[in-house]
Amino acid sequence: MSNSTRIENTTSLSPREKECILWVARGKSSWDIGIILGISQNTVNFHIKNVMRKLNVSTRTVAAIKAVNFGIIEL
What we know:
The protein is mainly alpha-helical. It contains five helices and no strands. The protein has one domain (about 5-70): Arc Repressor Mutant, subunit A, CATH 1.10.10.10. It has helices spanning about 5-10, 15-25, 30-35, 40-55, 60-70. The chain is globular, with a radius of gyration of 12 Å.
């Protein structure tokens, strides 16, 4: 993956998507994240699926790892 792709991925995540994937990286379930952020579990899943699509991965765990490695989120 080129650096320009990394930059595009970093800037294309919304603040809410970053928030959701951060909590995934911290080991929280969608239900937990919904409680923490005050949104529904379905909304959390929507944001996480967007992150997975934007980072071109098939699992939320890999999305969280990639987000950390790219500097999108910090644990």
